[in-house]
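Entry 12.
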Amino acid sequence: MIEDEELRNIYKITSEERLQKLEIGLLHLEKYPQDNATLEQLLREAHSLKGDSRIAGIENVETLIHGVEDILGSIKRQQTVLTPQVSDRLYQVIDAMGLLVYEAVTGSASGVDTPLMLNYLMATVSQPLQPDQEAALQNGHVSQLAPTVIEDEDLRDIYKISSEERLEKLEVGLLHLEKYPQDNATLDKLLWEAQSLKGDSKIAGIENVETLAHGVENILDSIKCEQTFLTPQVSDRIYQAIDAIRLLVYEAVTGSISGVDTAEILDHLITAVPDVGQDHDSPPDDSPPQVAQCEPTEATIEESPLLPTLPLLPNKTPLIVTPEVSSNLSEPYRIDTIRVPTPYLDALMTQTGELTVTKIGMAHAMAEIEEVATLWEEWKVVHCQGQYLESSSIGTNSYVQRLEQKINSLRRIAQENTTRLDIIAGELDEKIRTLRLLPLFTVFQLFPRMVRDLARQQSKEVELIIEGGETTADKRILEEIKDPLMHIVRNAIDHGIETPTEREKLGKSAAATIWLRGYQKTNTIVIEVVDDGRGLDIDKIKQTAVQRGLCTNEELELMTPRQINDLILAPGFSTRTFITEISGRGIGLDVLRTKVEQLNGNIEIESTPGLGCTFRLQLRTTLSTANVLLVDVHGIIHGLPIEFVETTLLVSREQIFTIEGRETIALDGQAIAVANLADLLELSNSIGYTSIATLKQQKSDRRPCILLKVADEQFGLFIDDLLDTQEVVIKPQSQLLKRVRNVSGATILGTGEVCMILNPPDLLTSLQSYQPTTSTVSTKLREIVESTPVILLVDDSITVRTQEKRILERAGYEVVTAVDGLDGYNKLNTRHFDAVISDVEMPNLDGFSLTARIRKHQEYNELPIILVTSLASDEHKIKGAEAGANAYITKGKFNQKFLIETLQRLV
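Predicted 3D structure (tokens):
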């Protein structure tokens, strides 16, 4: 391990960058072997890494990179051809150096056998390996003592959290499936999780987890095909495999040796179902892996590559997770470090200085406030002694003049500090948000190697072109979008791309192309996956949709091409009559849609038969804030994301006509479907609607209409009023509200009101299925027949106020709270109340005085007032009655039943 901390950090960063450049350059060189400039760059990177390792004293890395340099030099001299076999060995040596670098900076033993790895590499340009060496490589003994550690920190953290979640879902789902073995939906979810875990592990290079996950997937697939029954014995072996995978995941993210014998676990798993799988010890070949069929045939367990990382330890370790491992496995995801450009830090330091100036100004304002308070106390003393002047001489009153000067000074200071704080807060928010932005290439760089390996496995030729990798997005978006992108790319390779022979027959080039591009559009990040394959089979989609009961032939005739394409996102939809391990075993794209919707995004699908297909994901640049258009719907404020808003209109009754039973307006020669937003949200069905809604008579026959655009679809929503555009902070949704139709989130406005942020794609779906019972323009204002009683609760104790509020709400009352008597008196004028419940001892205005003041107003003579207090003497009860209270409840005898009964008698 490198002892010097500064040198250790520098070596870690530079080595990881050089290894990454070597891998990317090698991928490029495979496609363009005549690109001497790239070959020269690879030689420079190898030479620089060798020099860095020599200075740092890391001899094993120096030895291996010198071998890589020799191979590259041999290719440059045209003594060696860069065949796929040569590339494979270079990749595996690069992976081994990644482990050795990690060993050098952390002290965790890598277990890499450097001499054997060097012999394995140099055999590409010299003599073949000896039989015992080749056997060691084939059987995994190179890494017998070496845990497979993911060297990339971001990838390691993402793999850790995603794998833990998938393993937990596998366990929970398997428990459920044991109780309900006919639940095919749960079985599909388990297949999806196993397949996703396998895909994650392939990208991360954790081949032992990939192998075991594939074995679990085969068992589950056999159960789905009814070749196997989920007996307790089968469940036990699947659980043991899950436990083993959990240990291997822990090994991959920490470097601690798990001691799991992968081969033994795989044997144990496969023998649970004798007719599933083949002998995993059989030698691998170069043919593509066989596809599991729902027929009584043997399914093939995927063979490991030439250099697997399956630990074959002589000492068998029981599958028991130790307490130390258990605690570490449950650690939350943390980002410990982030690389920040120094100009950003300089800007933050500048703003910190401005905050200090403002803090000093606020301290000065506090001193001024103290002087005002002192003057006020002095004036009160003088006033009480009768030593004050007549109104005619106020202008010469020194107290009045001094108070006026201080008040004006405070007003000016407060205005200046408020303005300064607004500016600083805005700039700090922008700078800090910028620090969380990462380029899309952070995720895009995971795909070239995956596309290469999958294409070779499918015997297809695929070129991946990455565009717009410099576009930035919030780090959380990048972490969450990896799975959806991976699923789309795997589907493109497996379903969309033809074989070279098929492509040549169609007049296409033998090599297919997949474009992975990203770009920014206003406040939206757009990520596209485009292929030039066969495109979607529209007829097959229609046929499958009818067979699965998703729609009728008549409904299909009315659908647009976009709506037909979107059918493939329906749960369980698949046009394939067979299933493959690459793009999923019959698991539809509905999981993909759900994931994107969780990120408040949407998916567009475009396809041209025979020419290719495009998947377009639209996501916000950040998930924490959004620009919204605030609208009033029956007195309730809602927010619409501004990126979906096309324009606003005023629509008269005469402009609306009906097409196929749907109300429509004409705009620029196009028919635009319209509906009441209140009707789509079904506000009138809400329990609290009647007590909150404010229905106003329309002053004009022209109503405001918001024109929204989702993908290529336009539609209009009638509202009561346009309020404002505003940037809002989106609050995270609770566990109960993870997915609410038509709602994507919520925010708190400056007034303290909770505002729902609406989901335009959902609103479009609601509109398409909405069947109006009456005409939009002829809808009369609904009368509120029944209303929930509204109680004004006044108490200065937040504890008492909260407890009483809960009691009243559980009893079916709507409660408005006030923090003291004066606050309660002011709120009394804001709306209708059916009763007042008040404490007695409160600041500003006590309960007796509040009651007396309310009774001075004739309109409140019949308003029930209940005093709830700890003052239990007869004198206080008499005082309450004289003030005008209807009931007096002492807290010493207080119980919620008595309070509710009292309310019911009075209201």
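Annotation: The two ends are 78 Å apart (CA to CA). The CA atoms of residues 392 and 762 lie 69 Å apart.
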